[in-house]
Design goal:
Blueprint: H1 3-20, H2 24-47, E1 59-64, E2 69-71, E3 74-76, H3 78-87, E4 93-96, H4 99-108, E5 113-117, H5 121-126, E6 139-142, H6 148-221, H7 227-268, H8 278-323, H9 329-371, H10 375-383, H11 399-422, H12 435-464, H13 471-496, H14 498-513, H15 526-531, H16 536-549, H17 553-594
Parallel strand pairs: 1-4, 1-5
Antiparallel strand pairs: 2-3, 5-6
Helix pairs in contact: 1-12, 2-11, 2-12, 3-6, 6-7, 6-8, 6-9, 6-10, 7-8, 7-9, 8-9, 11-12, 11-13, 11-14, 11-16, 12-13, 13-14, 13-16, 13-17, 16-17
Amino acid sequence: MSRKDIGKIAEIMKNDFKGAFSNPIVTIVLIAIIILPSLYALLNIQACWDPYENTGNVEFAIANLDNGSTFQGTPFNVGNELVKDLKKNDKFDWKFVTEDELRDGVYKGDYYAGIIIPKNLSENVISIAGDNPQQAKLEYVVNVKSNPVAAKLTDSGANTVYTTLNAKIIQIINLAAYGKLGELQSGLAQGASQLASGGGQLAAGSAQIASGAGQVSSGVGQVQDGASQVQQGSSAIKGGADQVKQGSSDLQQGANQVQQGSEELQSAVDPSLIPDGPVKQYVDSSAQLANGTGQVAQGASKLANGSVQLAESSSQLADGAGQVAGGSVALAEGSLSLAAGAQLLSGAASQALYAAAGALSASANSLSSITGINETLLGDYFYSPIKLDRHELFSVPNYGSDVAPFYIVLSMWVGALITCVMIEPKSSMGTPYSPFEMYSGKLLIYIIMSILQAIVTIIGCVLLGVHIDNYPLFIFSAILVSTVFMILIYSVISAIGTVGKGLIVVLLVLQISATGGIYPIEIMHQFFQTLYPYMPMTYAITLIREAQLGVVWSNYWPALVILLAIGIVSVIVAVLIKEKADKASKYFEERLEESGLF
């Protein structure tokens, strides 16, 4: 580049600045061009600031026809309960109307949507606890034609009603089962107490049998003088046998209560109605334990009865030994053996009872730990057994800030296009300048306009309250994106004229869907996914998003390098093309002007 070329480039720049302030109208138009792109971004960001903030003004009709029913002797109306909950909900403007008003209002567009609660809702809900459960249904009526976005919003309202109703039904069923668990716990605890009492009595009887057996043994050594002692031992054995009988009776009664508690659990609580979780596991385990313990207790009872029979037999033999005590040592020894056997059997029965009582007591304690839970807390648990703990990375205070990168970048593209249309790049044909001099000389005014447009947009974002994580990086990135877009668009239009304007408009349309600015690129058509890595706005959005919402340098640097490369390549390619195509471009524009339409 010679000194002469530099002088001509500087002359073009000087003329442009002089023309910018040649009269007030030109200055006003330039100011409008600078401000207009920022309005495009800021108005769209404000419109998207919080799209769900004002859903409370969206009318949603509810027609409650539920006649109610009775649940465990208590009047119950699911529809009324649902209406009470919705009156506390401010997500929508709930309108409680008749069925005819709802259908007519949705049809005419007075209401975007409505839900009809049928007459048999409560009856169907309660049927879940019976032998013939019926699915409860709601009727959701929505006018899709009235507004496409409103229909999506009312879908959210219908889901609110649906989840609220289902949660309430689950609470009712599970809390009822919880009450039955309390009854089971009480029965098990009482049965364990009686089993332990019977075991104690059996142990006492066993001790008396042992004492009688000892006396019989002493009588063996003193046959002549021991007749009376054998008789005393016989009496002691009889007393022990009586206590064994009493313990056996108490044992049988405790076993019957345990068996009855097990049967009540099986008939009152259907484990299939209880959601999977700790409560269902406890119910299953406790029912199995109650059945098994009842069988153990009954076996122990039979064992105790056997010990009673043996004790009675030993007592009869002891009586006989007393009558023939004159020389019947062998008979006394046999009586002693029988008494020892009775003692062993009584001790075994006592140990079995203690083991059964301990198992039942442990089961009752386990159920007590469940049935002692606060019912309000338990209801909350059934409403939401699992809580999703949300942790946000790079969180933003509003949706407007979240979509700001897309609208900021889009406004800069639109701003560059408007600037190049209003201040049209010139052809070198018919001027004393070469294509290179014309391109280079006019470039400065466009770059200055792009910087001013970016500054106005940045100021507008700050005043609007857009969340900005890193102000210096955001300012640098916004100015860089605006400048690169201006260079790109100016280069295309300067090189190929009107055809370039059409190409820039086509790129604008494609980039709205092919850059992942609002919707994830993965859900877009494959055509747009293919275009995604080749669109300049793809990298511009990444640059602004990282600077505004929280920078990840591994994302920022590649986008920065690609944008700088786009700017540099645009200049080089534009100069080469303009040198060859400037004359053809001028001819094309003259033919358009001759038509009187352009």
